[in-house]
Design the sequence.
């Protein structure tokens, strides 16, 4: 991947980054004068939402006036937008949180904004981070970052943001190497999902007449892309999963957990379209041992027995459960060559599948039989080395305490 040119680098170092820091100081002065900060937590997809804990802590502190806003991703069609909005509204309603819209967001002009993604193309111009650089922009990745590339760390957002709450020392060092600002705005806060895998959870699996093993299939959306980072397994795996659903109907319960963009991509993909997509969804909704889950994945994960997928973020997040997972790829060497050490170790803790025989072996030997689990120790090592860093408090408390200290000089 080509490195940025010298002109762009100088423009950031001499003008854009210093200008952003001046704006930060001015906004902090304004917050101190009025003695409180108005905070916007942007929600676009329930699968990407990680900030319930931050909302609760800020809502309990009189110095914060915190709201959640639904801002739709620009590329989504109306159906995808409506589906994601409904899922988020249900989640927030159940948790006593009011969700506001994009009009409210533009009127309120928050002092601090958390966006769920840092890419320029995510939102319409008026809702984008670029239009709100007078605010203190914050960012916490919605999954553990597995790739150390300039595009992953060196966006305008990441360079002008007030705070980047990253997961561990590996990511801080990567930001220091790849960002124009040398990672000067990075705070190591741990993984946002860690606290969500603690305590009680809700069983979201469809009731069955008798207990069965529960397996999640979580396909990525990038099956039709020519990008070397694309995950191209969906088209060859989809007919296999249909056969397995029918064949194991009395022994395994399956759940389709699509990437938030999968249905939108299928809607426009040649050979699929609306009619085939609807038939696909009907199959997964109506088979007695099947269901579709488009919302929060934590309870789904915690109630499952195994995961089959091709998603980077789930490669780490499923490790919290301690349960076996299979990563699907017909070109695993290429996948691994693009990953950093964190990503490679996560995939190493997986069983891997390149065809129907591999998937069947995983289901028979690991999920159903379960007498031997050769990857159990690797999963334990990954949790210890990358998900449990021995820091005080949880992710949300570390984030909120850092913001308090940075504005008011106290925890």
Sequence:
């Amino acid at each position: 991947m080509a490195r940025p040119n010298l002109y762009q680098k100088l423009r950031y170092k001499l003008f854009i980054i210093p200008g952003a820091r001046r704006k930060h100081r001015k906004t902090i002065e304004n917050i101190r004068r009025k003695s409180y900060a108005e905070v916007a937590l942007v929600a676009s997809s329930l699968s990407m939402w990680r900030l319930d804990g931050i909302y609760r802590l800020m809502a309990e502190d009189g110095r914060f006036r915190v709201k959640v806003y639904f801002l739709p991703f620009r590329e989504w069609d109306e159906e995808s937008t409506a589906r994601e909005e409904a899922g988020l509204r249900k989640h927030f309603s159940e948790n006593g949180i009011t969700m506001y819209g994009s009009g409210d967001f533009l009127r309120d002009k928050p002092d601090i904004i958390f966006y769920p993604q840092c890419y320029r193309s995510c939102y319409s111009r008026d809702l984008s981070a670029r239009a709100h650089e007078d605010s203190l922009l914050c960012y916490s990745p919605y999954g553990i970052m597995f790739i150390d590339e300039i595009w992953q760390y060196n966006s305008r957002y990441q360079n002008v943001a007030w705070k980047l709450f990253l997961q561990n020392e590996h990511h801080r060092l990567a930001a220091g190497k790849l960002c124009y600002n040398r990672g000067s705005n990075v705070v190591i806060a741990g993984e946002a999902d860690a606290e969500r895998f603690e305590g009680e959870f809700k069983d979201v699996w469809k009731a069955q007449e008798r207990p069965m093993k529960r397996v999640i299939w979580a396909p990525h959306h990038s099956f039709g892309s020519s990008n070397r980072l694309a995950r191209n397994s969906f088209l060859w795996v989809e007919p296999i999963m249909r056969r397995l659903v029918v064949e194991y109907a009395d022994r395994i319960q399956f759940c389709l957990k699509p990437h938030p963009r999968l249905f939108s991509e299928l809607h426009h993909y040649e050979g699929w379209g609306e009619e085939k997509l609807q038939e696909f969804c009907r199959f997964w909704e109506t088979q007695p041992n099947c269901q579709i889950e488009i919302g929060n994945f934590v309870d789904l994960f915690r109630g499952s027995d195994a995961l089959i997928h091709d998603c980077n973020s789930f490669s780490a997040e499923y490790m919290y459960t301690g349960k076996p997972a299979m990563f699907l790829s017909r070109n695993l060497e290429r996948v691994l060559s693009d990953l950093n050490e964190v990503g490679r170790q996560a995939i190493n803790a997986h069983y891997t599948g390149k065809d129907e025989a591999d998937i069947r072996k995983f289901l028979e030997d690991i999920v159903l039989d379960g007498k031997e689990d050769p990857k159990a120790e690797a999963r334990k090592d990954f949790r210890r080395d990358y998900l449990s860093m021995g820091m005080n408090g949880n992710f949300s408390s570390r984030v909120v305490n850092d913001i308090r200290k940075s504005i008011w000089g106290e925890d």
About this structure: The CA atoms of residues 197 and 298 lie 7 Å apart. The two ends are 41 Å apart (CA to CA). The first strand starts at residue 37 and ends at 43.
